[in-house]
Amino acid sequence: MRFQFLRKNNELLKVVVIGGGTGLSMLLRGLKEYKLDLSAIVTVADDGGSSGRLRDEMDMIPPGDIRNVLIALADTEPLLEKLLQHRFNRGKNLSGHSIGNLLLAALQEITGDFKSGIREMSRVLAVRGQVIPVAEELIQLVAKMKDGRIIRGESSIPKANGTIQRVFLEPKDVAPTPEALQALQKADVIIVGPGSLYTSVLPVLMVQGITEAIRNSTASKVYICNVMTQPGETDRYTAYDHVKAIYEHVGYQLFDTIICHSGKVDEEVSKQYDEQGAAPVAVHKEKLERLGLKVIAKDLVKHQTYLRHDAKKVSQLILQVISRKPIEPD
Predict the structure, then answer these.
(1) Which residues form a coiled coil (predicted)?
(2) Which of 115, 193, 205, 274 has the least C-beta neighbours within 10 A?
(3) Degrees (nearest 5) of the Cα angle 223, 15, 226?
C-alpha cells in the first residue's frame, strides 16, 4: 500500500527534486513508494561517456541523467530496468552506449524534440512523476581552479587534480524550461540533492531563473548533503562548506533545512574511501545554524561495502519534515 500525502484541497502534495547522478535517482526510488505529485528537474550538463557522444553526434541534450531518473521512477519489471541500463561492450560504434540512452535518442527523432521523447518514454515505463530537463539547449560546465586554470566539461573537472574556485555555465544566459519554472512555482516542497556539488547540483541551480523561482516559492526548501566528500570536487568539505559553496554561486538564504548523515562509518569501509581520497562529510551543526538552517543529522546510509544514502530512510525523514512531525536526534 502506498501512503498518500494531500494538500488541504485534497490534491496530492507537490514535491520537486533537483539535481542529477545517482543521488537524485536514489531519492526518487524512495519517494515514488508514496502517493505524491513528484517532479524531478534534472541537469543537462553531462558531456562524458555515452551521453557525451550522443550530445556531439546528434546535437542533443545528454540523456544519461534523464535516463537514470526515468528508470528510478518507473514501475517496471527488474529485467526491463536491467535492459535499459545495459551498456554494449562490443562493436566499434555501439560500445559504451546504454540502450536507454539510444531509446531516448530515437524517441527524440520520432517525436521531433527531446521533451516529447521523455514524455513518451515516461508513458511506456509507467513513470510515477514528471521528469523535466532544466534546459533545452546544450550547456557546457566550466570550472575556474584556484591555481588559475580553466577546465571545460563536466567530466573533466573532477579529473583536473586541483581545487575548484568557481563553476559557471556557457552560455551563461541559458533559459530554463517552462515546465521547470512551473513545477517550482506550484511546489509544496523543494528538495536539492544529494548529488555531486559542482557537477550535478550547481549546474541546475545556476540556470537563469531557477534560483529566483526557488527563493520566491512558499514551499519548504530542503538540501540533502552528501555522505562522503568527492575527490577532485569537494576534498575536505564539511556540510557547511557545501552550503557555503552553493550560496556563493547563487545567493544566500536558499534553504530552510539541511539533512546530513551523522552515523559512524565502519572501519573497513573507511579504509576503502581513504584509498580513494574520500572522507565522511562532517556536519558542524552550529555553523549551519548560523546560516539560518534547521539541521537534521541522522544515520541515513546503507552500511555495505560502500556508503550510499538509504532511499527508505531518507524518504521517511523527508516525509516527517513535510508532515512537520518532531524528529528525534540519534
Answers:
(1) none
(2) 274
(3) 25
Helices and strands per DSSP (H, E), number in the chain: 13, 12
Query: What would the grid cell of residue 98 be?
Result: 546504454
Are 323 and 6 within 8 A, CB to CB? no
Q: 228, 242, 260, 138: which is closest to 198 by C-alpha?
A: 242
Rounded Cα distance between 181 and 217, Å, is 10
Omega of the bond prior to 194 within 30 degrees of 0, cis?
yes
The 3-state DSSP class for residue 91 equals coil
- Is residue 235 within 8 Å of 163, Cβ to Cβ? yes
Residue 279 in contact with residue 241, Cβ under 8 Å?
no
In the structure, what pLDDT confidence band is assigned to residue 329 with cuts at 50, 70 and 90? low
CB 40 within 8 A of CB 67: no
Q: Cα–Cα distance between 18 and 16 in angstroms, integer?
A: 7
> Which domains are present in the chain?
1-44+187-330 (3.40.50.10680)
Residue 291 has pLDDT above 80, yes or no: yes
pLDDT digits (tens, 9 = 90+) for 253-273: 999 999 999 877 776 767 777
CA separation, residue 266 to residues 11, 22, 112, 298, 304 (Å): 43, 22, 50, 16, 9
**Cα 322 to Cα 37: distance, rounded to the nearest angstrom:** 13
Cα separation, 180 vs 134, whole angstroms: 6
In the chain, the N- to C-terminal Cα span, in Å, equals: 28
Containing H/E element for 275? helix 267-276
- The larger pLDDT score, comparing residue 192 to residue 271, is at 192
pLDDT at 80: 85
Alpha-carbon distance of 280 to 236, in angstroms, equals 9
Residue with cell 557555503: 244
CA–CA–CA angle 176, 47, 201 (5° rounding) = 50
Which amino acid is present at 41?
A: I
